Amino acid sequence: MKLIFATGNPHKMNEVQAMLGDLYTIQNLKDIGYLHDIPEPHDTLEANALEKAQVIFREYNVNCFSEDTGLEIDILNGEPGVRTARYAGEEKSATANMDLALQKLKGATNRQAQFRTVVALILDGKEYTFEGIARGTIRTEKSGEEGFGYDPIFQPKGYSITFAEMDKESKNAISHRGKAIQKLVAFLQEYKQKS
Ligand code: IMP
Predict the structure, then answer these.
(1) What's this model's pTM, rounded to 2 decimal places?
(2) Binning pLDDT at 50, 70 and 90, where does residue 25 land?
(3) Domain total of the chain
(4) CA 86 to mean position of chain CA atoms
(5) How many other CB atoms sit within 10 Å of the CB of residue 11?
(6) H/E stretch holding 180
(7) DSSP SS3 for 8
(8) Ligand 1 centre from 127 Cα, in Å?
(9) Which of 59, 71, 129, 192 has the most CB within a 10 Å radius?
């Protein structure tokens, strides 16, 4: 079955296709000729994820899913949250975003944080959501070259390396998006068996 992943982010696409294996072949927005940025106007990850899936469903009438992810830093009351991508400005610079987070946490002893992903699926016209959380801490400096976004400053709980020092498979096994996508995959497998 064809499933559209409403994303323009090739890193996310790679992570997710690796997890779906041959259960579903996914196509992204570019593959279906949708070249606009889908707005994220809401103040929750859930509402933004649903909005992205709804926009594609309305326009193409296809089964599709989307995801929205936020970094939630405990001592900053969950900031940057829905503003994660634009934390340091509209240009969505990963370096500037990380620098701002590091600056806000300067001298802080409580550096606990989490990544939270909400996946929204529209399948045969019905909406479903799946959540994944990865707890960890914000390092005092960037470390590692893998991954994307805030990966160089996020050290997942139970590890002494950052997400940016892990290979894709290791990150997927414990990450926020990995956990949400595992729930999506389990749901899709069961759905496929029933239908
Ligand atoms: P969005 O879900 O594409 O809107 O991403 C929100 C922000 O979170 C962007 O700045 C991304 O770079 C960042 N982000 C999303 N997923 C990850 C991740 O797995 N690691 C690090 N940063 C991420």
Answers:
(1) 0.93
(2) confident
(3) 1
(4) 14
(5) 15
(6) helix 176-194
(7) coil
(8) 23
(9) 71
